[in-house]
Amino acid sequence: MRAGMVGFGILCLLLGWAGQLRADEQTEARALLDKAVQAAGGREKLGKFQGLTWKGKGTFQVNEGQVALTSEWSVQGMNQYRWDGQAEVNGNTISGVLILNGDKGWIKPGNNPAAEMPKETFTFLRDEFQAVRLAQNLVFLQDQSLQLTPLGELKIDDRPAVGVKVTRKDRPDVDLFFDKETMLPVKCGLRIQEPQGARQEALHEFFFSDYQEVEGLQLFGKLVLKRDGQEIMTTELTEAKPQENVGDSLFDKP
pLDDT for 93-136, tens place per residue? Predict the structure, then answer.
């Protein structure tokens, strides 16, 4: 009987220690985030500008070749996204529109009517866009429903970086890293289920650089996407414009 009580006491002690360790990790991660928020422009400015528009120009890897891609983006909060893009393929220009608005999404290829986005495509794009959005406006990471845990230090492009793991309900975990000196985001990554082909899972990593100050905010000017370590997209961002509200009508069915 006494041995059983001792064992029970040790178990309670270990559980208590585990809870304390988790609390300490949360405190450490939140402290790191506070520094990053301040470096990006401060909580007041980040919270004020819930919307953002920009233009992009770059390339996307398709099979064995690269496609030139230009785009215009409008985003609002964490759940509204609009992409108007054009691709140059074999001398032909192909255009399209993608919209995600809450739990709805549409695809409009060229002059064709808009079609509802397949569920697996919507889920994939939502999770991709939201991962980048967390790095783009760090105020969304201060949501107390998110669990943050420190990831330690590593080198990205030969510079030390520190990271946090972002855990959200019903979403893939996002690993977000900040340059240790500037405390600006330099990378985020997530394992994600791809909708095409065999619907396999892959590691998607976004790299951020060429920061510029706009309206008191630090915004990255270059984005590179790697899939399982292979670069598949690079985009130069121009004409970035933070806005308090870009207008809900932009996210209606096109």
Answer: 889 999 999 999 999 999 999 999 999 999 999 999 999 999 99
Phi, psi of 123 (to 5 degrees): -60, -45
223 residue type, one letter: L
What are the structure tokens assigned to 172, written together?
């893939």
Q: Which two tokens stand for residue 61?
A: 């890897």
Q: For the domain that residue 84 is a member of, what is the CATH number? A: 2.50.20.10
Cβ atoms of 221 and 236 within 8 Å: the answer is: yes
Q: How far apart are CA 142 and CA 66, in angstroms?
A: 38
In three-state form (DSSP H/G/I as H, E/B as E, the rest C), the secondary structure along 140-169 is HHHCCCCEEEEEEEEEECCEEEEEEEEECC
Instruction: Give residue 89's pLDDT band: very low, low, confident or very high (50, 70, 90).
Output: confident
Domain residues for the domain of 203 are 2-251
DSSP string, 203-240: EEEEEEE--EEETTEEE-SEEEEEETTEEEEEEEEEEE
Integer Rg of the chain from CA:
21
Phi-psi bin for 34: left (phi > 0), alpha (psi -120 to 50), beta? alpha
pLDDT of 165-183, one tens digit each? Answer: 999 988 999 999 999 999 9
Q: How many structural domains are present in the chain? A: 1
Among 126, 121, 134, which Cα is nearest to 208's? 134
**Is this prediction's pTM over 0.90?**
no
| SS3 call for 138 | helix
Handedness of CA 142, 129, 211, 159 (dihedral sign): positive
Question: Using one digit for the tens of pLDDT, what is the confidence trace for 44-63?
Answer: 999 999 999 999 999 988 77
Q: How far apart are CA 42 and CA 138, in angstroms?
A: 9
pLDDT of residue 7: 53
